[in-house]
Amino acid sequence: VAPTTPVCEVPSSAMTGTVVELSCKETDGSPPSEYQWYKNGVALLEKTGTGNSRAANITYTMNKKSGTLLFNTVTKNDTGEYFCEASNGVGLSQKCSVKRMQV
Q1: Rounded distance, CA 42 to CA 47, Å?
Q2: pLDDT in tens, 89-102
Q3: Which residues contact 50 (CB under 8 A, 6 or more apart)?
Q4: pLDDT per residue over 63-82, tens digit each?
Q5: Were 20 and a residue from 9, 27, 28, 71 both cysteine, which residue would form a disulfide, CB within 3.0 to 4.6 Å?
């Protein structure tokens, strides 16, 4: 079953230095969807455990299975327009509407 349009939870504003979690979920897709977050139209990289994420200055953890995008400490650089895309290899992938987060 192709995924339906996911529901995105993106806070409209966040305080610098706080923990912020964005979530994305759709429940109709079978097999279960994987989720990809985008910021300002650019796909966010999944953080890997190889230690090179510091070099890339990645301040978040993206979980493609659960659809969460977790910022341990948000900075002004994290301000932007976010949306996520659900895909499970069946039918077309689905995106939620873009939401702006102001830090």
Answers
A1: 15
A2: 999 999 999 999 99
A3: none
A4: 999 999 999 999 999 999 99
A5: 71
Question: Looking at residue 83, what is its pLDDT?
Answer: 97
Nearest CA among 32, 30, 42 for reference residue 84: 42
The residue whose two tokens read 């964005």 is: 22
Q: What is the four-CA torsion angle of 56, 86, 84, 12, rounded to 10 degrees?
A: -130
Classify 97 as helix, strand or coil: coil
What is the 3-class SS of 26-90, one letter each residue?
CCCCCCCCEEEEEECCEECCCCCCCCCCCCCCCCEEEECCCCEEEECCCCHHHCEEEEEEEECCC
**Structural domain spans, the chain:** 7-101
Under CATH, which architecture does the 7-101 domain have? Sandwich (2.60)
Quickly count: other Cβ atoms within 10 Å of residue 16's Cβ. 12
| C-alpha–C-alpha distance, residues 83 and 35, integer Å | 10
